[in-house]
Design brief:
heterodimer; A: about 325 residues; alpha/beta; 2 domains; 5-stranded parallel sheet; about 25% helix; about 30% strand; B: alpha/beta; Rossmann fold; 9-stranded mixed sheet; two-stranded antiparallel ribbon; globular; binds flavin-adenine dinucleotide
Chain lengths: ~325, ~260
């Protein structure tokens, strides 16, 4: 059994993170986001709390995952009205928690739900909100956030004048980490008069037929750009990926060309990856792409152009035709 | 007639951005601007709703006067009324300060039954403005919308998330942000309407017209502060190998072995 606490009994001034749950499962981003928050928490002497909203605790399947997380506490709000994500209701629950526990920070993974929820709360509470942050640090006791902006190749460093500090954090920008100590779990009792009504009625839900890809957590990523020349060539990446237990990534133009689904896009408009090895075939390395892969441990670029930015940032650059190298690599690996 | 409010934004043409080093904001007046591409999807959504249900469309943008051509372009596509929110005091706004001005203008344009926006801009790319504006208006916000239809008095919206498609029902008014790439075909402006709009000027609302609180406006009214912007440059840090494809592949395979990805 999990101990119940009223809002007033919860720890004040902490760093709160939204743990997105869907169908009883926690989104992997919840665990990623805790990594930088734990570092901040240690520097600023604040507790790190993961907040999970769900319909009922019995349907939650990932308790073991949360037990291993680096959070100091996990707060669970359970109510049948939370069974579907409803922007207004979810925001009101979090606003109530923020109002009583005056957190120092409030963070969301930049998933589609996180990006829908965070600005509603910021708007309602008149707070600043940083979008798609991929690096956080403490300077003079203050949280400083870094994010790419895209008109040109510009990186912005931001601070907020309001508390709690709020941000959505790029998916895949931080590695998951695991704690030695199990977090304390509390079920949060919302106040008696809390209004669980929502203006949103969910009539139907049609799950995606496809399994979401594991790009953001893949250990090896093989990515392709326009230098692969055709959809047919691009599709060979899937064969290579299969051999290397890798995931396939892509640049924006090739997604738009229809060579591959858009959920494979790496970069500011897509996902962030940080694999052990990233191999880019025929990718120029525009900043919009590289912000999504620059933290890869080892970067390989295959390109005909020695001057391409990705060639310059790569640990290993192979100057040559991307599809020839790809074909030959697959052939050799088959042996 | 029921009204749709359509919000659009002029954004710098990619690659033309200049940074003002003292205020750390983009120099918006000196730039070459384009209509934010995702907003074209919102425009198409609004015009289809107008066709199907006979709405009137009011297109709204906050920005300097050089965004007027985009209001006219959208008029050409099918909007009926143009509103420019323009004041020196709005400059340097973060999403909260932007949403505050939009929300107050939208209130002034009441009654309306739907607010349609793009999913995100291609410059700030925060995608925060739609939900923040809705929160300030006390309205529900639905992001990532791919379909909007009316059933009786209510809106039926289909929202796409990574988990699947949700079909939602809401009473008007609602704020919706439209998923990019929903429509393959984006109708161009009609010549007739473009000629018509030549003679027309948008309604202009300043801070005073909207009775806005000065302390909530622009750079000073923005809780999100850019402390530093810098350009990113990469330096060569690795090994560059040239040669026959077979030589290149050998090199690659040995690296994959070293990294334990494949086993010799
Ligand atoms: C607002 C905005 C957001 C964006 N978001 C993203 C994003 O999230 N992700 C993203 O990827 N892009 C994004 N982009 C696009 C980005 O700016 C680049 O245009 C894109 O990454 C380039 O893709 P590419 O490398 O496939 O193509 P290109 O830039 O055309 O590069 C092709 C490369 O292939 C090389 N090449 C050509 N022939 C061969 C050959 N035979 N063998 C080997 N190499 C060859 C060329 O030398 C070149 O370096 C965004 C752009 C904007 C304006
Ligand atoms: C370097 C840099 C970094 C920034 N980072 C942040 C940040 O992290 N957080 C933050 O709050 N602000 C940030 N800003 C400010 C932000 O870019 C501006 O507030 C911007 O005016 C609105 O945000 P957006 O472009 O991201 O819009 P989005 O929220 O991405 O736009 C979504 C939709 O809202 C509508 N919309 C947006 N702006 C307008 C408008 N002016 N008029 C009419 N409709 C509009 C359009 O339909 C658009 O498609 C940053 C600015 C700079 C220069």
């Amino acid at each position: 059994m999990i101990e119940k606490k009223n809002l007033e009994e919860l720890e004040k001034g902490s760093l709160l993170a939204f743990g997105e749950i869907f169908n009883g499962k926690i989104h992997p981003s919840a665990i990623e986001v805790l990594t930088p928050l734990k570092e901040l928490g240690l520097k600023l002497d604040k507790k790190v709390v993961l907040i999970c909203l769900m319909d009922n605790f019995k349907s939650f399947q990932d308790l073991e995952v949360l037990k291993k997380s680096v959070a100091d506490e996990v707060w669970m709000v359970c109510h049948q009205e939370l069974v579907h994500f409803k922007d207004d209701l979810y925001a009101e629950v979090l606003i109530e928690i923020v109002k009583t526990t005056s957190p120092y920070g409030l963070f969301f993974p930049a998933t589609s739900l996180g990006c829908a929820l965070a600005p509603r709360i910021a708007g309602k509470l008149n707070l600043g909100l940083c979008a798609h942050v991929n690096y956080l640090e403490v300077e003079d006791g203050k949280i400083v956030m870094v994010r790419p902006t895209y008109g040109e190749n510009i990186i912005a460093k931001l601070i907020l004048k309001t508390t709690p500090v709020m941000a959505t954090l790029s998916i895949g920008a931080f590695s998951p980490s695991f704690g030695e100590k199990e977090p304390k779990f509390f079920e949060v009792a919302m106040p008696e008069g809390f209004n669980w009504a929502s203006k949103i009625k969910v009539r139907k839900f049609k799950p995606s037929v496809k399994q979401p890809n594991r790009l953001s957590t893949a250990k090896v990523v093989v990515a392709g750009g326009r230098g692969l020349k055709s959809k047919e060539n691009f599709e060979k990446l899937f064969e290579l990926a299969h051999m290397l237990k890798a995931e396939v990534g892509a640049t924006r133009p090739v997604c738009y060309e229809g060579w591959v689904e858009e959920d494979r896009m790496i970069g500011v408009s897509g996902v962030t990856v940080r694999p052990k090895v990233y191999i880019g075939f025929g990718i120029s390395g525009a900043l919009q792409h590289t912000v999504g892969m620059e933290n890869s441990e080892f970067i390989v670029a295959v390109n005909t152009d020695k001057e391409a930015p990705l060639v310059k940032m790569a640990h290993l650059a192979l100057i040559g035709d991307a599809s020839q190298v790809l074909d030959l690599l697959i052939k050799k690996l088959k042996k | 007639m029921e009204k749709i409010i359509l919000c659009i934004k002029g954004v710098p043409k990619p690659g033309t951005v200049k940074v003002d080093p003292s205020t750390h904001t983009l120099k918006r007046d000196s730039l070459e601007l384009i209509l934010n591409p995702p907003d074209r999807q919102a425009v198409e959504m609004a015009v289809r709703l107008k066709e199907n249900y006979g709405f009137k469309i009011t297109v709204v943008t906050m920005g300097p006067p050089n965004v007027i051509p985009f209001l006219k372009e959208v008029y050409g596509i099918g909007a009926d009324e143009m509103v420019l929110l323009s004041d020196r005091a709005f400059a340097g706004a973060d999403t909260l300060a932007t949403s505050y001005v939009l929300a107050e203008a939208i209130k002034k344009l009441s009654p309306y039954s739907l607010v349609v926006m793009g999913l995100k801009s291609i410059d700030g790319e925060t995608s925060q403005v739609p939900a923040e504006t809705a929160a300030l208006l006390g309205l529900p916000s639905i992001t990532n919308v791919k379909t909007i239809v009316k059933e009786g008095n209510n809106w039926i919206l289909i929202r796409q998330t990574e988990y699947g498609e949700e079909e939602l029902e809401l009473e008007p008014p609602v704020v919706a942000s439209v998923l990019p790439e929903v429509f393959d075909y984006l109708r161009p402006p009609s010549l007739k309407r473009l000629l018509e709009v030549k003679e027309k000027d948008p309604l202009v609302f300043t801070a005073q017209d909207l009775r806005l609180s000065p302390e909530k406006l622009g750079l000073n009214g923005s809780p999100t502060q850019v402390v530093e912007v810098f350009e990113k440059k990469f330096e060569a840090k690795g090994q560059v190998v040239e040669g026959e494809p077979s030589f290149l592949v050998e090199k690659l395979i040995s690296v994959l072995e070293q990294k334990g990805i494949i086993h010799p």
